[in-house]
Each structure stands twice: as structure tokens, then as C-alpha cells.
Amino acid sequence: MQIGTTIAQFLADEQRANNTNNTDLLALMGQVATACKVISNAVNKGALSGVMGSLDSENIQGETQKKLDVITNEIFIQTTERGGQLAGMASEEMDDVYDIPAQYAHGKYLLVFDPLDGSSNVDVNISVGTIFSILHYEGSAANPVAADFLQPGTKQVAAGYALYGSSTMLVITTGHGVNGFTLDSDIGEFVLTHPGMMIPVDTKEFAINASNQRFWEAPVQRYVSECVAGKTGPRGRDFNMRWVASMVAEVHRIIIRGGIFMYPKDTKDPAKAGKLRLMYEANPMSFIVEQAGGLSSTGRQRILDVQPEGLHQRVPVILGSKNEVEVVLSYHAGM
Ligand code: AHG
Ligand code: MN
Ligand code: MN
Asked: E strands of the chain, at which residues?
């Protein structure tokens, strides 16, 4: 009988192949995988466990928190804080850095996460996800401060996302390509199902929230109008459009069958450079996209090179199939 490769076995194999032996990272990734299993279970139970709907509270971005935003944040903390690998955590749902309680051993990694991405979709039973990024703690104080987290995306040690879709998947990178695992609920393990994931370089599918069109800059206006013009326009071919409103689901679709995703800079709110958050959305997803052969940019700069200035900083995002992102970037270059 052929048994599958679990995520723990895969990561051990990957380390051996790269002549590294980082048991702390293996342990931490195992805890993150466990957190995603617990979240998958909570999301799957849906209304049966009374966790649908919103709270009266807002997060630091002024967004009304869903009950599940807070529950999944707590699941992530409880699952990962005791292992001894973490120096601290930060997340979309916490204003400031989370200190590892003094009674637990402190480690050398920082964990940054969006516990429930696309949470507006949870009440309507559409796919949601979890995004995480692992950084080195380079400081020496017992508890890191926000400045310790503000490292460009190129410094990520590992990143990944879980997608709670028609099946639950975990897609990860440690800088050696991108690999996807499907949760086998019979045995409670993520099993390797999508080795060496690569984004097709060409695409005919774009994703953008068109309700913001009047706020877009000229290069994005031009690109989208050329896609919509299809065969009769300058691109000479028809395009298809998708918008799930869960970044994890969009990125996963793009890795599987190609595409371009944009939440670009717009003039909707001059105080916000974009909608998506650099530290726990754009950076981990950009690491994955680049490792899968795609490109990820603000339109003006590679996302992974952006020097973060705040834990909850927003950034414009244009990512996906290499040749198509290059078209959008060429329009920005001509601004
Ligand atoms: P979150 O639920 O973590 O706040 O993130 C939602 C993000 C992202 O997942 C998605 O691509 C985008 O917001 C959707 O934005 P619109 O509501 O403007 O469609
Ligand atoms: Mn999100
Ligand atoms: Mn979220």
C-alpha cells in the first residue's frame, strides 16, 4: 500500500535535501498546520456552533470583527505560543505585538498572521483562508517590539496559506518552491497532493473589484479596459473575470490555472495606499507567488522589497502570471 507524504515528512525531506537541520522550524510549522486544522474545523461547523455573524468590536483598521475573526486569532495563539519556538506574534486582529507569556520558553522566530482572510465571506459560506509569515527575531530583549517585525518580505523564513474551500489545503514555501497539501480528515493529516506548484506564465483571467474603477490610476484603467475589449481590442483576445473577495482563494486559483489579481493603489481614501496589509497578506502571498514563478508588485516596486513602516501598513498589490503582471508594470513605467 502506498501511503502519502505528510507535511512533517515533507519538511524533513526538504531540509535534508538542502543540508539544513532546523528542528525549531519543523516544530513551528507543525503547530501552524495544527492551528489551520482547528480553524478548518471551526469554519466547517458553520452555524452549528453559533459562530456566524459579527461582534460589536472593530479591529485596528476600523473593520467590524466577525466572531470567527476573534476565535481564529485565539486558536492561532493557543496552538503556537507554548512550543518554545516563538519570540512574539502579530496579527490583523491585534493592535500591538503579542508577547509570549513569561511561563513559556521564548524562541527565535516571529509569527505574523491573518487568521481568517476573506471573513466577509463566512456568513455566505464562501471560501475563506488563513495566511502566515515566519521571520527571524534579530533582537535580544525578552519580548520583541513592533520594530522587530518590520522586516522586508525578502527576509521571510517561511510563509503559507490555508484555504478552507471544497477541501482544506495548506500551501507553503520555505524558499525552496511551493508545495500544496490536502487535509485528509480520516487521518487528520495534511498530505502532499500538489508538489512543485508553478503559476502558468500566461493567462486570460483577471481579478479586481470593479466597483472601485472610478478610483483607479491610469495604468490599471488602461489594462482592465483592454482586457474587457477582448478580441476586438488591442490585446486581440478575450479575457475572463473572477472576484471571490478572499485573497487566499484568488491566489490559489492563480497558482493552479494562472491569472492576475489586483488590489491596486486608488484614490478612494488618500490615507490608504491600498487595501491589503503588507505584513500578513501581501508579503507572505508575494513570497509564495515568486517561489511559484509569478511576479508581485505594488505597480512601482517589488512587494518583497518594500521596507515596512507599520505592523498594519497597507500596500497596493498586483500579482500573478509573470507575462501578464509585466504588461501592467509596463503601463506603470510609462506613467
Ligand atoms: P480580511 O477578511 O482579512 O479583512 O481580508 C479581505 C481582503 C482580501 O482577502 C480580499 O481580496 C479583499 O479584502 C476583498 O476586498 P473587497 O471587500 O473590496 O472586495
Ligand atoms: Mn485578509
Ligand atoms: Mn482577516
From this structure: 54-58, 64-66, 86-91, 98-99, 109-117, 128-136, 158-164, 168-173, 179-184, 189-194, 205-207, 240-241, 260-263, 295-297, 317-320
Nearest CA to ligand 1 atom 17: 245
pLDDT of 254 over the 90 cut: yes
* Ligand 1 lining (C-beta closer than 6 Å): 63, 92, 114, 117-120, 209, 245-247, 275
Domain spanning 205-333: which CATH class is it, in words?
A: alpha beta
**Rounded Cα gap, residues 108 and 92, in angstroms:** 21
**Contact of 160 with 172, CB cutoff 8 Å:** yes
User: Under CATH, to which class is 7-194 assigned?
Assistant: alpha beta
72 alpha carbon, closest ligand: 3
Residues in the chain: 335
Q: What is the pLDDT of residues 198-216, one digit of tens each?
A: 999 999 999 999 999 999 9
pTM for this entry: 0.97
Domain ranges of the chain: 7-194, 205-333
